[in-house]
Amino acid sequence: MAEHRPTQQEEVLWYLKTYGTITALEGFKELYIIDLAGCIRDLRKLYIISDEWIHKNNRFGRPIKYKRYIYEGKKKGVA
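^ thats the sequence. predicted structure below, dont judge the formating
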């Protein structure tokens, strides 16, 4: 019997439940997922995942921003 390989959504959900938050860079470095926003969009059908903009400067001093996604639990009334 073939071993179950988790989907990208399952991997992102595990990461969120384990660490509480994830950014696109963490998604790529830790899970090799390029379209984290797409996975989050799909997960939001069943789970409450909020986000916040993080504002920083890059190594050259130019301002950048990126999102941090925050796991808040399963939606009520969803099986």
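The chain has a mean pLDDT of 95.
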